[in-house]
Automatic annotation (TrEMBL), chain A:
The keyword Transport applies. This is Unannotated protein. SMART domains: AAA (SM00382). It comes from freshwater metagenome. It is a peripheral membrane protein. PROSITE patterns: ABC_TRANSPORTER_1, ABC_TRANSPORTER_2.
Automatic annotation (TrEMBL), chain B:
InterPro entries: AA_ABC_transptr_permease_3TM (IPR010065), ArtM/GltK/GlnP/TcyL/YhdX-like (IPR043429), MetI-like (IPR000515), MetI-like_sf (IPR035906). Its main location: membrane. One of its GO terms (molecular function) is transmembrane transporter activity. Keywords: Amino-acid transport, Cell membrane, Membrane, Transmembrane, Transmembrane helix, Transport. One of its GO terms (biological process) is amino acid transport. PROSITE patterns: ABC_TM1. It is found in: Cell membrane. It is a multi-pass membrane protein. Residues 19-207 form the ABC transmembrane type-1 domain. This is Unannotated protein.
Length: 279, 219
């Protein structure tokens, strides 16, 4: 499978001070494929995603983009060349990927339009007028054409995240990386954002999505990865993972998240149904 | 009152000349201080140990010694090594270097206040190096730094009076010379004080405007 992957990570290990965040993880995504990563908080799913564009630098492992070996750790992380090696690798990866963050991370000093046009213009050398025109088109696609001169702080969370998606798309990435894109949103705003992401799935864009929204995962995923304690425990089609999980840990997690199993004790617990809170 | 007007008729041209020098001193010293401050703040946050150490030592040493000593060192000390400096240049160098140390901390606080997510978003979009700072980080950091900068700008207006001790004919020294000829200390020094106020009040108003402008779009 790695041979046909447009982006792949092999044997990734990442330690945070006292804790192992990723314990030898490997996975790849094929062109046009939508991979959804699920798992409990602290399972390493965000860290794995953030290693794919080197926002997080793995301690060990390899990153490959199409046919190119982008980074091989720890080899490229040794000695004086560490920084330049990592910057070069990150430049390569961010040239083909875009990331949408849990907390939006829009640039607060720029208007919505400038947020979207900035990277294509300053990084990609697209002429300013063209970058703005593209930005307006994208704003239309996410349903916010009328807010182009607003500042991020003047938008709701859901609107901010849609702008962030437009900003990520503006540099024409081959792969979109979504890091819990709806986790910071009020429940009633989640739907709009998921809708935008889903529409883009239909357009054939390659995506890796970390999410706690199980229904959404089931709908959009071509392949689902379940992670726990820094390891990829199980992967398969949504059908396999959600309906016939092989591992007990996967089944256990899904039971806790989806509350499919009727509450066993008292009927008073029924109003817990439908909560997606996993803690 | 007519006494005062007579005195002013005589003293005014010299005071005005002094005011001009004070304004020039303020602008040049502040500009130098801002440049040194920003460079030192960026060095303090550098990846390289050597740059961090240099900035650290600079800030500590300069903040730890009186500005008057620094001024004497530049004006009287440098000529010993064959470096001749004019009084005005000495004042600009000493004041600029001194304020640079304080402004470094103001800028550093501004830079540290920027959320990690801003760096991550910028990097994920391909921003790096100079562009990352110029377009994304510095505009936000400077916004946070503005109140502190305004504070030091105001302070600079008055600290330029220290230049009088190295014979710069700025506002205070012009006043002193008039006093030594007329013995009208009260009238002259009161006028000199009012003239400092005439610079610092508009400056305070202007920095407030700048702050408001930079807060545009912030909740």
């Amino acid at each position: 499978m790695p041979e046909t992957s447009i982006l792949s990570a092999t044997d990734i290990v990442k330690d945070f001070k006292t804790q192992r965040a990723l314990d030898v993880c490997s996975f790849g995504v094929r062109e046009g494929e939508v991979v959804v990563i699920i798992g409990p908080s602290g399972s390493g799913k965000s860290t794995l995603l953030r290693c794919l564009n080197l926002i997080e630098v793995p301690d060990e492992g390899m990153l490959r983009l199409a046919d190119e070996d982008v980074l091989s750790m720890p080899r490229d992380g040794l000695g004086r060349k560490r920084h330049s090696n990592i910057v070069r690798a990150r430049t390569t990866l961010t040239g083909s990927t875009s990331m949408v963050f849990q907390k939006f991370n829009l640039f607060p000093h720029m208007t919505v339009l400038d947020n979207i046009a900035a990277a294509p213009h300053f990084v990609g050398s697209v002429p300013k007028e063209l970058a703005r025109k593209t930005a307006i088109d994208l704003l239309e696609r996410v349903g916010l054409a009328d807010r182009q001169s607003a500042f991020p702080a003047q938008l709701s969370g859901g609107q901010q995240q849609r702008v962030a998606i437009a900003r990520a798309l503006a540099k024409k990435p081959r792969i979109m990386l979504y890091d819990e894109p709806t986790s910071a949103l009020d429940p009633e705003l989640v739907g709009d954002v998921l809708g935008v992401i889903r529409d883009l799935a239909a357009s054939g864009m390659t995506k890796v999505i970390v999410t706690h929204e199980m229904d959404f995962a089931q709908q959009v995923a071509d392949r689902v990865l379940f992670m726990d304690k820094g390891r990829i425990i199980e992967e398969g089609t949504p059908e396999q993972i959600f309906a016939h999980p092989v591992h007990e840990r996967t089944a256990d997690f899904l039971r806790r998240v989806r509350v499919q199993v009727p509450p066993p004790i008292s009927t008073a617990d029924t109003d817990l149904r439908g909560t997606h809170d996993i803690n | 009152m007519s006494n005062y007007l007579d005195l002013m008729a005589e003293a005014w041209p010299a005071l005005l000349e002094g005011l001009k020098i004070t304004i020039i001193l303020t602008i040049l010293s502040l500009a130098l201080g801002l440049i040194i401050g920003l460079v030192m703040a960026l060095m303090r946050l550098s990846r390289r140990n050597l740059l961090r150490a240099i900035a650290h030592v600079y800030v500590d040493v300069v903040r730890g010694t009186p500005v008057l000593v620094q001024l004497f060192l530049v004006y009287y000390g440098l000529p010993q090594f064959g470096i001749r400096v004019t009084p005005i240049l000495a004042a600009v160098l000493a004041l600029g270097a001194n304020y640079g140390a304080y402004l470094a901390e103001v800028f550093r606080a501004g830079l540290l206040s920027i959320d990690r997510g801003q760096w991550e978003a910028a990097e994920s979009l391909g921003f790096q190096g100079r562009q990352l700072y110029r377009k994304i980080i510095l505009p936000q950091a400077i916004r946070v730094s503005l109140p502190g900068i305004g504070n030091y700008a105001n302070s600079m207006v008055k600290d330029t009076s220290l230049a009088s001790v190295v014979t710069v004919m700025e506002l205070l020294r012009s006043g002193q010379i008039i006093v030594s000829a007329t013995f009208q200390s009260f009238e002259i020094y009161l006028t000199v004080g009012a003239m400092y106020l005439a610079i610092s009040l508009p400056l305070a108003w202007y920095t407030r405007r700048l702050e408001e402008r930079s807060n545009r779009g912030y909740a």
